[in-house]
Specification:
563 residues; Helix Hairpins; alpha+beta; 16 helices
């Protein structure tokens, strides 16, 4: 569209916008007047009609030139209009035109005074002289000319001061509003819901009685209504909240396609407030997105002012408080609580199983010991020992996790033979004969806590036997400046996207049917202990599932306090 016919957005504090509006409307008026005058000349053949047509075209042309040059000056257009009216009257000598001309000259003078920022006193002297001179030019030096001129001057002066007073009061109020709006510490939008009001009236006329149900059943209708909302103004805080480079990027019609389904109820609540003639409503905005695509949550407050007892939907104010962090914390707490509940249930189950065995076999041995042979008694004692070790492992993992989280976990550092510790761990689990354990090359001792090394290996071996497949192998080897010990099995590989998650607290990557679920702390605790001792624990799959514990072969410190 040609710039001469595009309507600018008004700013209450920017007088240049008022100049622009005046000039562009003057172009329209001039074009329409020229057309009417040409038609009048064609019908009546009156020369004055042709003169007025030419004058109107010239007036519109001046305005168009201003727009092209981007130098709109409303007072110039008004001055030209006043001059043209003097010419029209002098050529026509029609009383009706004289009255209209007098009124036009007064009004243009009042409007011109509104635009002035300097020279007001000079204008108040020159323009009344122009008014009186015009009347004398029309009527001569007569009493009528002086009377009409005097009345016009009084009307001009009174109208100028009255309009200036209204403008100043309006500008003061607008200044206070915009200052508060732009500097508010919360996100603010000024939005135009005028088209929404008309659309809702159409829905009501079409027989819709329950808007909430209608929008819930027809999300496309809701999105159509969202497209009718236009953002007039936003403040800097809103731009920061939505991660926009400039507040002006957010101005204009809403784009329904950018709203996820979770955010639709907040818009529906605003439409329902208009439907039910409610002035304000507060609602949560769930799972929205910023301009950069980042998720955000907000607490939205929608308010519409009233004019003459009716809601002014063109000036709706929307404020949004960022509660993304609060919701993230709440969701994290909810997840944590669910994890804790699952942990308690799993720990209870895992402890109950071995403890039931320990208690049951102990009571059986205590009550009927003399009825068992020596070999049978040893088998039962072995079972009790195995289940006791299982309980001790669970308790130890829980204690280590709690100490690490509170910063109280300590490890003592001393030379450790990795192969020897692996053998000791296998022997303690009673699987030394089942698991192949060997060293590749010559591996120097590492500085570590032998008890923590055995705890890590025990967790890895229990994990391999619980979730992996035979055969299970243990390999000790060099790894640059470190020594590594691998626990290998032939189990199904862990998916790529879970290979780091398995080291998270309470995470259980897979569940084998018929096998009690793990607590979900063994791998977490093992990696934390490895890090504390200056090493690492990783998972990979190279045809076998491989958990690799690496520890440095030299270390300056004899003990570390982790905080």
């Amino acid at each position: 569209m040609d710039p001469a016919f595009s309507r600018p957005r008004v700013s209450a504090l920017d007088m240049s916008e008022l100049h622009t509006i005046t000039v562009r409307y003057a172009i329209r008026v001039g074009a329409i007047t020229a057309l009417v005058c040409v038609l009048a000349w064609a019908v009546t053949s009156e020369p004055i009609a042709l003169v007025m047509a030419v004058g109107s075209i010239a007036w519109a042309g001046i305005g168009y030139a201003m727009v092209r040059a981007q130098r709109e000056m409303g007072q110039v257009m008004l001055a030209v209009a006043a001059f043209e009216m003097v010419v029209y009257v002098s050529l026509s000598h029609l009383p009706a035109i004289e009255i209209m001309a007098s009124l036009t000259i007064v009004l243009t003078g009042v409007a011109t005074f509104l635009f002035l920022r300097s020279g007001e006193r000079l204008f108040l002297v020159v323009y009344p002289a122009f008014i009186v001179g015009a009347n004398i030019y029309w009527h001569g030096w007569t009493g009528i000319a002086l009377a009409e001129g005097g009345i016009s001057v009084l009307a001009f002066v009174a109208g100028s001061y009255a309009l200036r007073w209204v403008r100043d009061r309006s500008m003061d109020a607008a200044s206070r509003f915009l200052n508060l709006f732009d500097r508010a510490p919360v996100s603010l939008w000024e939005e135009d819901f005028s088209k929404v009001g008309l659309w809702l009236n159409e829905l009501r006329a079409a027989g819709v009685t329950d808007l909430h149900a209608h929008l819930a059943e027809n999300p496309d209708v809701l999105r159509h209504g969202m497209g009718l909302v236009s953002v007039v103004r936003v403040n800097e805080q809103a731009a920061r909240f939505l991660e926009a480079d400039d507040p002006s990027d957010l101005v204009g019609p809403l784009k329904p396609e950018t709203f996820p389904d979770d955010a639709l109820p907040s818009m529906a609540a605003q439409f329902e407030a208009i439907w039910n003639d409610i002035d304000e409503v507060s609602v949560e905005v769930r799972r929205g997105f910023t301009v950069q695509g980042n998720p955000m949550d907000g607490l939205l407050h929608w308010a519409v002012p009233r004019r003459f007892g009716r809601p002014d939907l063109s000036r709706v104010i929307v404020s949004v408080v960022d509660v993304t962090e609060m919701h993230d914390v709440r969701r994290s707490l909810e997840t944590s609580l669910r994890s804790k509940d699952e942990l308690i249930a799993t720990v209870s189950h895992e402890l109950r199983t071995p403890l039931t065995t320990v208690v049951g076999l102990s009571m059986e041995l205590s009550a009927t010991y003399d009825q068992f042979s020596k070999d049978e008694a040893q088998d039962l004692l072995g079972m009790i020992a195995d289940q006791s070790i299982e309980v001790a492992t669970i308790v130890e993992d829980l204690l280590v996790a709690a100490r690490a989280e509170s910063g109280l976990l300590k490890v003592g550092m001393e030379p450790v033979d990795m192969h020897s510790e692996a053998k000791t761990t296998l022997r303690g689990l009673g699987i030394e004969e089942e698991v192949d354990c060997h060293t590749v090359g010559v591996v120097a001792s590492v500085l570590a806590d032998p008890g923590r090394v055995r705890q890590i290996l025990r967790n890895l071996l229990v994990n391999a036997r619980r979730y992996g497949s035979q055969p299970v192998r243990v390999i000790v080897r060099e790894a640059g400046d470190s020594a590594a010990i691998e626990v290998r099995d032939h189990g199904t590989p862990i998916p790529e996207d879970e290979r780091e998650a398995i080291f998270d607290r309470y995470y259980r990557a897979r569940q084998t049917p018929g096998v009690t679920a793990s607590v979900g702390l063994g791998l977490t605790v093992s990696r934390e202990l490895a890090h504390i001792m200056g090493g690492d624990l990783t998972y990979a799959h190279d045809g076998e599932s491989v958990f690799t514990l690496t520890l440095p072969r030299s270390r300056a410190t004899a003990a570390i306090n982790v905080s």
